[in-house]
Amino acid sequence: MKLFGKGRAQTHVCPVCAYLKLPFKPYKQWPPPPDLELTPPYEAQLGKPSHEACPQCGFVFGKEDTSFEEYRYAWGGRGRPWADPSVAPPEDERRFAILGPGTYEGFDRPGLGEEVPEQLLVQAQRLEAAEDVMGLRRLVTRLARDGITGYDVVAIGGFAGSSWDFLGFDVDVQGLSALRHREEARSPYFSERLNEHGLLADFADVHKFAIAVSPDALLPIGRLRRSAVTPGDRLWYTIGNEHNPGDPFGRIVLTVEADGTAALEHYGGRNGSGTWTARVDTDVIARIRAELGRSTFPEVAREPIPAGSGLRQLEVVTDDEPEYVLMGDRQGQRLDGYKEAFALLDAIAIRITTGAYERGDDALDATAITDVRQIT
């Protein structure tokens, strides 16, 4: 199995967001020597800059008021690319698949197994070919309801949106995963650098590998959040951007099941990050659904979203069928039904975090949230 191939000369890797097909050289001497400790001004070390912007993260090479490292942290959270849910890679660079139970173990791992009925295997193949994410989601949820669990919807080669968990980078060599077949490839390089998903995740490793091999061989891997393929009614809500310096509240991801079981993730913000579990009174859930019932949910008028503004994303699952809405923070604060529902969701987050999350007001009854436990 050949691991090292010749990359196309015109293709480079963005040192900020790991975009794999940068169509220009950032600087005259590029890529930089592997052991060179880069500090601005980069022109002194790397020659004339291109003064062009990365088409994905927007970093302008030659505009050195912000370093690679600073911009990378603000953009992607210590090297995690595509943190901004409004940015998606080109469609022809990604595909979707159902992968079987267990750890990731490579994009060429078998998908649906023998326990899946033949007609569903055929349906899955059609959905994958059509890149029908919603169809794949419904199929995996149906399998779980029938007791066939452990399957994931995975995006291979790029993804966007807060519904996806970034797992790391795989390596495509002639249609096979070089990470999964690393023993066959006899390469000790990989084994020492893989994360818990069996993927490359450290930005420095990804960058060095792309320079040594080819950017085209690297495949970012994302997994659809598992609550999206779990049977049952639920609310899923997220707002904020921990990488936006103008957002002091950070980002939350709140999942509330029909029985009141809740999980909250809080990223960034002036009071730090954390994860919690809790129980939400089912009367509060009913109030949220009632407020949405008198709104236009899931429809909303499209409005321009000001730069730096927060995005409110809400998914309501009823009888395994999801309905979804996305809007700007300010729009969500003024629309009847929506503003009341969002206020309740924000209040749940405030109560669970005991005030660490500060967007909105806590107007809930004393017994509305119980069994709060901080995990991290």
Descriptive notes:
By secondary structure, this protein is α+β, with helices and mostly antiparallel strands. The chain folds into 2 domains: 91-226, no CATH class; 232-374, Mago nashi protein (2-Layer Sandwich), CATH 3.30.1560. The chain contains 10 helices and 12 strands. A 7-stranded antiparallel sheet has the order 11-10-6-7-8-9-12. Strands 1-2-5-3-4 form a 5-stranded antiparallel sheet. Helix 3 runs antiparallel to helix 4 (133-145) and helix 8 (282-293) packs antiparallel against helix 10. It starts with 42 loop residues before the first helix and ends with a strand. Residues 1-9 and 76-92 have low confidence and may be disordered.
Arithmetic mean pLDDT: 81
**CATH topology description of the largest domain:** Mago nashi protein
What percent strand? 15-25%
**Outline type:** globular
Q: Using DSSP, what is the number of strands?
A: 12
Helix content percent band: 10-25%
**Number of individual domains:** 2
Radius of gyration: 22 Å
Spatial arrangement of strands, main beta sheet? 11-10-6-7-8-9-12
Helix count, DSSP H or I runs of 4 or more residues:
10
Based on secondary structure, the structural category is: alpha+beta
Oligomer: single chain
CATH architecture of the largest domain: 2-Layer Sandwich
Termini separation: 42 Å
Secondary-structure element order, N to C: HHEHHEEEHHHEEEEEHEEHHE
Give the arrangement of secondary structure elements.
Elements: H1 43-46, H2 68-76, E1 95-99, H3 118-129, H4 133-145, E2 152-156, E3 164-173, E4 176-177, H5 182-185, H6 188-191, H7 203-212, E5 218-224, E6 234-239, E7 251-257, E8 261-267, E9 274-280, H8 282-293, E10 311-318, E11 321-328, H9 329-332, H10 338-352, E12 369-374
